[in-house]
UniProtKB/TrEMBL annotation:
Keywords assigned by UniProt, alphabetized: ATP-binding, Lipid biosynthesis, Lipid metabolism, Lyase, Nucleotide-binding
Gene behind the chain: mvaD
Keyword set includes Lyase: yes
Family under the similarity heading: Belongs to the diphosphomevalonate decarboxylase family.
Species of the source: Salinibacillus aidingensis
Key word Ribosomal protein present: no
Coiled coil feature spans: none
EC number: 4.1.1.33
Start and end residues of each Diphosphomevalonate decarboxylase-like N-terminal domain: 7-164
Source species, domain of life: Bacteria
Domain (Mvd1 C-terminal): residue spans on this chain: 180-303
Top class in the EC scheme: lyase
Protein name: diphosphomevalonate decarboxylase
A Pfam family per the record: MVD-like_N
Amino acid sequence: MKAVAKAHTNIALIKYWGKRNDELILPMNNSLSLTLDHFYTTTEVQFDEALQTDTFIFNGETASDSESAKISSYLDRIRQFAGVQMYAAVRSVNHVPTSAGFASSASGFAALAAASTKALGLDLDRKTLSILARQGSGSACRSVFGGFAEWEKGSRTDGSDSYAVPIMSKTEWDVRVLSVLLESNEKPISSRKGMKRTVETSPFYSGWLEAVDHELKEIKTAIRTKDFERLGKVAEANALKMHATMLGSHPPFTYWQSSTMAVMEEVQHLRDKGIQAYYTIDAGPNVKILCLPEDEQKIRDELENLEMVKGIYGCRPGPGIEYKEKLP
Ligand code: PMV
């Protein structure tokens, strides 16, 4: 009754922003991401009749009550899905600098969905795994797959048609993502809260929804034809639109800090010098820069001159869910 699974984080190039159902985590729009090789979570789950409660060890230490409660309520869904009542011991090792503000919920819930179902002897297809991962954290449904993946929002109320599908495998196109670590104060507003406020109060939200379908079509053409400039332009424009919806919310908010904007400006300077670099930003201050392998070093050299840059992590396209023998 034990299994270990490894899942990588992903960066959305067309963002998921807004839910139509909070409980099942059903999104308002399709989104598209690239799974990254550098950041991942490995999780071991062991179900045991003898346990009186779920236990959760995170990076070698007992998790906080609030973290444990989140994991336990997710395991309730898995227990209900599998028709069992046993508690589980969960051990998770995160190769994502979480404290630095890089999101780990995508790799975390994708690994937990895979390890817990496998531990219960279920042999699930990727679509079902993606549906289950989605119910932990929306973006996790895309981390089931490697390379580029699209989360189809679906239309059913039960969420049975809301899952990710692979668009291009990780070996087909070597694009790079530089994750730029900036000053990392604790997030003022979780993505969950931020989306909710935006959907409920921002007059710009309808504009976001209007634009996103065309941007998805555009980015899928860019991927199919390996047109990097087209990919970068649409990804950057999509990120800016998502952040614009927040400025229109009531009360207004933003995840950007002055360092965020300094890096955005630097990327623009790089482009003015003929280097193909584009940025994208999630629900936090850090910036991810999309580039091609031949430009990676030049971009690093420029960024290292900026005093607010605390670290640069180079990422390549990464794999989907993998099962392992044991925790590393
Ligand atoms: O899955 P969550 O709740 O962590 O939300 C992710 C939201 C964004 O990172 C901003 C966009 C995305 O599609 O990943």
